[in-house]
Amino acid sequence: MQLGLENTKQTKWAIVLGVVAVLAIAYFVVPMFTGSTLATSSSAPVGAPAPGRAPARGAKGKKARAENLDPTLRLDLLASVEQTQYEGSGRNIFTSEPEPVAIPQPGGPGVTDVAKTPIYVPPTPPTAPPIPLKFYGFASRAGEPKRVFLIQNDEVFVAGEGEIVNRRYKVVRISPTSVEMQDMVYSGPPQNIPLTQG
Prior knowledge:
- The protein is an alpha+beta fold.
- It is built from 3 helices and 7 strands; from the N terminus they run H-H-H-E-E-E-E-E-E-E.
- Among the domains are: 10-40; 134-194, no CATH class.
- The protein has helices at residues 8-34, 37-43, 75-82; strands at residues 134-138, 147-152, 155-160, 164-165, 169-174, 178-183, 191-194.
- It has a 4-stranded antiparallel beta sheet with strand order 4-5-6-7, with no helix packed on it.
- The radius of gyration is 42 Å and the shape is flat.
- 6% of the residues are buried.
């Protein structure tokens, strides 16, 4: 019976690697079970002195100031915090537009040149451009909901009330002479598109 020990070079390398593996396992596993200094030092708080050591002394031989770790509830500090009142500047933090600036009157106190004072004009919201669709006719049958033909350039769309046309325009209401449409990109009132003759 052969044990595979014919090649002594491979056998020596296997023994060396086995010893290294045992030492590596012992280095990482044994400190967890024995409670070595590595495990205790990492669990101790940063500011607390190590157990069994005297507290460090300052340059003049005085003890270092111990932090106040008293867990009792300080009602006087709570009462002083409860009495504080928030006094804001009056600006509404929930609006995105800046507040309008007061325009000083000519000849008022402290105003020398009115032309140099900047005047704030609030921006106007963008208005929706006219809808490029044309109301061409009706596409509904008896007993079905109203549907209309809408045309833009060479494209023809068929839509009913509440449907979106061209991924942008919503048909709000269909009347016998016009269609009321809402541009979904721009907020604003719906636009009426009259029936195109021909």
